[in-house]
């Protein structure tokens, strides 16, 4: 029997503080829709349920997602740890097989990439007890439920940092 399709959690509650006052998630990328909508469309095309973390009251990001079958999750603090905690808490009850975490500002991750990651997990926990990683050393990963309950309760909150 095939494992249920795990949800995709898109982390999009960050402040875009390094963008000089512009919100990168509502900017078009290479002529495509706003980045946040493009990421949600890529995730939805996999057939998986999609959850998106957003700061409360962010009308531009909400508008960019209008009409899409995604579940919006309000995150009070725009730090990545808060987004993970709130997003994981909003997922379906324990019947989920895990979650695929997608950072909203990664335009080069395709639907094929996401589908490949989802298809690579059969519903059983990993032997090593850590998150599954793809062959590419980037920031996408699949977190089975065994590790989600332990790793996605992050305290203190993490803040993303650019390379200096």
At CATH level 3, the topology is: Spore Coat Polysaccharide Biosynthesis Protein SpsA, Chain A
Subunit arrangement of the protein = single chain
Fourth-tier CATH superfamily name: Spore Coat Polysaccharide Biosynthesis Protein SpsA, Chain A
Residue fraction in strands: 5-15%
Order of helices and strands: EHEHEHEHEEH
Structural domain tally: 1
CA-based shape: globular
**Overall strand count:** 6
Summarize the structure.
The chain is α/β, with parallel strands linked by helices and 164 residues long. The chain is 26% helix and 14% strand.
Description:
This protein has 164 residues and is of the alpha/beta class. It has a single domain (8-151), classed as Spore Coat Polysaccharide Biosynthesis Protein SpsA, Chain A, CATH 3.90.550.10. The protein contains 5 helices and 6 strands, in the order βαβαβαβαββα. Strands 3-2-1-4-6-5 form a 6-stranded mixed beta sheet, sandwiched between helices. The radius of gyration is 15 Å and the shape is globular.
């Amino acid at each position: 029997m095939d494992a249920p399709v795990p949800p995709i959690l898109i982390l999009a509650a960050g402040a875009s503080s390094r963008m000089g006052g512009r919100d990168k998630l509502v900017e078009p990328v290479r002529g495509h829709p706003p980045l946040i909508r493009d990421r949600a469309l890529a995730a939805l095309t996999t057939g998986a349920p999609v959850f998106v973390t957003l700061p409360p009251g962010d009308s531009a990001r909400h508008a960019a997602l209008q009409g899409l079958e995604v579940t919006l999750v309000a995150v009070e603090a725009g730090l990545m740890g808060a987004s993970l905690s709130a997003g994981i808490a909003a997922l379906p009850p324990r019947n989920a097989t895990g979650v695929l975490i997608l950072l909203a500002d990664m335009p080069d991750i395709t639907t094929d990439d996401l589908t490949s990651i989802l298809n690579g997990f059969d519903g059983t926990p990993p032997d090593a007890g850590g998150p599954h990683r793809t062959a590419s050393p980037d920031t996408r990963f699949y977190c089975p439920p065994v590790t989600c309950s332990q790793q996605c309760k992050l305290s203190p909150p993490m803040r993303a940092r650019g390379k200096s």
